[in-house]
Amino acid sequence: MKKLIFLSVICLGFTKSDFRPVHIFMIGDSTMSNKQKKEIPEYGWGQVLQHFFNDSVIVENHAKNGRSSKSFIDEGRWEKVISKVKKGDYIFIQFGHNDSKPDTARYTRPFTTYKRNLEKYIKETEEKGAIPILFTSIVRRHFNEAGTLTDTHGDYIPAVQQVAEENEVYFIDMEVKTKTLVEKMGPEKSKQLYLYFEPGIYPQRPKGANDNTHLSQLGAFMIAGLAVEEMKELEIPVTKYLISK
Fold this sequence. Notes:
7 strands; two-stranded antiparallel sheet; 7 helices; 5-stranded parallel β-sheet; alpha/beta
C-alpha cells in the first residue's frame, strides 16, 4: 500500500508538458518541403513523414523550395531551427539539388564550401546533443536512350558520403534508393512519382505539368517509405516509434 501511495505522489509531480516527444527537424529543398495549397498536387517527402510515426515523434519540416546548403544558412533558416533543437532530437539534412545553381546566393563547390556547410550542420547539431542524418538528393527522372537514368548531381553525392564517413554520422543514400525505384518502374510508369498531369485538371495549375524533379503525393509517400526502410536497416533508435515495424 505504501508503495502505491509513493508511486502516485511521484506521478502527480509530472504533467503532460513534461513529456516532450522526440523531434525530427528536416532541412533541405523543394523535394523535401511542405507545399502550399497553390502548389498542389506537388508534395515533398518530408511533408508526409509524420504519417510513418506515432505520437512519440513530431516532425518539423523546415525544408524550403529553392534552397541550397548555403542559402539556408545565409537566410537565417538554420539559426531558427537549431535554436529549437533539444538533446535526443534528430536533424535530417538533404541538400544538393540547388547547390550547383550558378547564382552566388546558392552555389557551393562540392568538396569545399558544400562540405563545410554540411559539417557546420553536423557540428552544431551534435553540440545540442541531437543526432544528424545526412541524405543525398533524390534522383531526377532523366532517362537516356538505354532506359537508365543520367547523373545530374555529379560530385555532390560523393561529397555527402565523404562528410558522413569523416564525421561518423548516419548516412542514407537516397539517390541510389530512388534511382533503383525509378529505373525499376521504367520511363512511363515512373511518371506517377513525379508531377505529370494534363492541363485543366487542377485550377491552381491550369497549364498542367511535365516535371522530372518534383514529386506527386504518391512519389512523396514512396520516397519517405524508402527513407524509413533505410533507417530501419541502420537501426536508428527513432525507428522504435514507427507505426508499422
